Amino acid sequence: MEFVAHPKDLPLDITVVEDQCFPLVEADRLGFVGITYLAPLAYQAGSCVRITLQEIDPHFCVTGRIAWCDKEQDEYRIAIEFPNNDDCYCVRMVEQLSQIEHYRRQAKNQGRRLNYNEAAAEWIQQFAANFPAFTL
Questions:
Q1: Rounded to whole angstroms, how far apart are CA atoms 93 and 101?
Q2: How far is residue 38's CA from residue 79's CA, in Å, rounded to a whole number?
């Protein structure tokens, strides 16, 4: 099982959802299963959460489950898993877009102005091969 660290400069909106449950993710599941994120609040493992990401896609809304939550200084590193294969695939695609936007912003901070397509081409060349695959 692999989690990808979501960039902190692209804030997630996370809401606890009381009326949803998921099947357990099998421990031997391979490839991408979710994301990790530094959150200002602690979340209880097993809680279902709804996630939106306005900066990348205002229509993106997916529900996942908190796999674990660890305190890190003044924040909490949470892992959000997506047991539903369709949601997991969607999150993986949106996460790649998030990583590309983060790369573009880092380049800008270093004095390089890249449009999104330029940033995507560079990110793909440098990082796409190491991005966890989605496997069923």
A1: 13
A2: 9
With a CB cutoff of 8 Å and minimum separation 6, the contacts of 132 are 2, 4, 31, 32, 92
We report the CATH number of the domain holding residue 18 as: 2.40.10
Band of residue 85 on the pLDDT scale cut at 50, 70, 90: confident
* Cβ contact 8:38 at 8 Å: yes
In a domain, 86, yes or no: yes
| Six-digit token string for 99 | 């990583």
Q: How many domains does the chain have?
A: 1
The average pLDDT across 25-49 equals 85
Distances (CA, A) of 120 to 38, 42, 114: 24, 33, 9
Segment 43-48 mean pLDDT = 93
Q: Strand locations in 6-117, DSSP E?
A: 13-17, 32-39, 48-53, 57-72, 75-81
Q: Specify the pTM.
A: 0.88
Q: In angstroms, rounded to a whole number, what is the distance separating the alpha carbons of residues 69 and 59? A: 27
Determine the angle formed by the axes of helices 85-109 and 116-127, rounding to 10 degrees: 110
